[in-house]
Amino acid sequence: MSTRIAFLKGHGTENDFVIVPDPDNAVELTPAAVAALCDRRAGLGGDGVLHVVRSAAHPEARAMAAEAEWFMDYRNGDGSVAEMCGNGVRVFARYLQHAGHVSEGDLAIATRGGVKTVHIAKDGDITVGMGKARLPEGDVTVSVGERSWPARNVNMGNPHAVAFVDDLADAGDLFSPPPFGPASAYPEGVNVEFVVDRGPRHVAMRVHERGSGETRSCGTGACAVAVAAARRDGIDPAVTGTPATYTVDVPGGRLVITERPDGEIEMTGPAVIVAEGEFDPAWLESVVG
Ligand SMILES: N[C@@H](CCC[C@H](N)C(=O)O)C(=O)O
């Protein structure tokens, strides 16, 4: 890692990120460096890192460069790599706007989960085309300690297990021990959502994220929850020919999810930049060598 590195801090429904602008992909973000940046006591603190790189400069994104100028190289707080981050991609778009790279309107962002279309609205909210959900067949179970719940396996580019519970407090302290789904269904680990009903097409959730622990929100998780809730309610837009919209409350705010008859899912929510600065070079040296 070179010595002088700029950062920003941002969040989407309080799913918070350290943003590292690095157009030429010159910063070596090792897993240890990411974990140090995300450390809430000894580092800057965040659920993950949004590494902002031009697609043409990143080996994983070069093939998408003609479609999307910028690549969201997303990392979880423990340094692991994930395919997609729904709150992250809104905050990523907000950063591009803040830095003057884009203005209000539509843009395409490359992610490991493919190119996502993003709309920055005048009112400040950001809408992301999240793609289609996959619903692998087969029952899955999520467990916390001695307790288990049946869950729905939903893939939003990344893996989710959605469990409907009587009370969000049922899940207890999601950190000790963390919830898990069966390794056979989730060989790469899983994000677990616990969900309760709040009203017609309105649910609330808690989430334990793979690689980050319990967070205040998860955008891909909210999409997985909306789809699982719709199927549970007997609603499939592909069958009815009508879009289905669910409001999903998360501990850090609210997301609105619409599934269209063609299966495409759109998520709308806020994205905020809260600070910007430069890492202290001596500190960086000490944590990443
Ligand atoms: N917070 C994210 C999801 C981030 C990735 C996830 N932890 C994984 O490993 O799949 C979101 O808003 O979608």
Automatic annotation (TrEMBL):
<feature type="binding site">
    <location>
        <position position="191"/>
    </location>
    <ligand>
        <name>substrate</name>
    </ligand>
</feature>
<dbReference type="GO" id="GO:0009089">
    <property type="term" value="P:lysine biosynthetic process via diaminopimelate"/>
</dbReference>
<comment type="pathway">
    <text>Amino-acid biosynthesis; L-lysine biosynthesis via DAP pathway; DL-2,6-diaminopimelate from LL-2,6-diaminopimelate: step 1/1.</text>
</comment>
<feature type="binding site">
    <location>
        <begin position="86"/>
        <end position="87"/>
    </location>
    <ligand>
        <name>substrate</name>
    </ligand>
</feature>
<feature type="binding site">
    <location>
        <position position="15"/>
    </location>
    <ligand>
        <name>substrate</name>
    </ligand>
</feature>
<feature type="active site" description="Proton donor">
    <location>
        <position position="85"/>
    </location>
</feature>
<feature type="binding site">
    <location>
        <begin position="209"/>
        <end position="210"/>
    </location>
    <ligand>
        <name>substrate</name>
    </ligand>
</feature>
<feature type="active site">
    <location>
        <position position="85"/>
    </location>
</feature>
<feature type="binding site">
    <location>
        <position position="158"/>
    </location>
    <ligand>
        <name>substrate</name>
    </ligand>
</feature>
<feature type="site" description="Could be important to modulate the pK values of the two catalytic cysteine residues">
    <location>
        <position position="209"/>
    </location>
</feature>
<comment type="function">
    <text>Catalyzes the stereoinversion of LL-2,6-diaminopimelate (L,L-DAP) to meso-diaminopimelate (meso-DAP), a precursor of L-lysine and an essential component of the bacterial peptidoglycan.</text>
</comment>
<keyword id="KW-0457">Lysine biosynthesis</keyword>
<keyword id="KW-0028">Amino-acid biosynthesis</keyword>
<dbReference type="GO" id="GO:0008837">
    <property type="term" value="F:diaminopimelate epimerase activity"/>
</dbReference>
<dbReference type="GO" id="GO:0005829">
    <property type="term" value="C:cytosol"/>
</dbReference>
<dbReference type="InterPro" id="IPR001653">
    <property type="entry name" value="DAP_epimerase_DapF"/>
</dbReference>
<feature type="binding site">
    <location>
        <position position="76"/>
    </location>
    <ligand>
        <name>substrate</name>
    </ligand>
</feature>
<comment type="subunit">
    <text>Homodimer.</text>
</comment>
<feature type="active site" description="Proton acceptor">
    <location>
        <position position="218"/>
    </location>
</feature>
<dbReference type="Pfam" id="PF01678">
    <property type="entry name" value="DAP_epimerase"/>
</dbReference>
<keyword id="KW-0963">Cytoplasm</keyword>
<comment type="similarity">
    <text>Belongs to the diaminopimelate epimerase family.</text>
</comment>
<dbReference type="InterPro" id="IPR018510">
    <property type="entry name" value="DAP_epimerase_AS"/>
</dbReference>
<protein>
    <recommendedName>
        <fullName>Diaminopimelate epimerase</fullName>
        <ecNumber>5.1.1.7</ecNumber>
    </recommendedName>
</protein>
<keyword id="KW-0413">Isomerase</keyword>
<feature type="site" description="Could be important to modulate the pK values of the two catalytic cysteine residues">
    <location>
        <position position="160"/>
    </location>
</feature>
<feature type="binding site">
    <location>
        <begin position="219"/>
        <end position="220"/>
    </location>
    <ligand>
        <name>substrate</name>
    </ligand>
</feature>
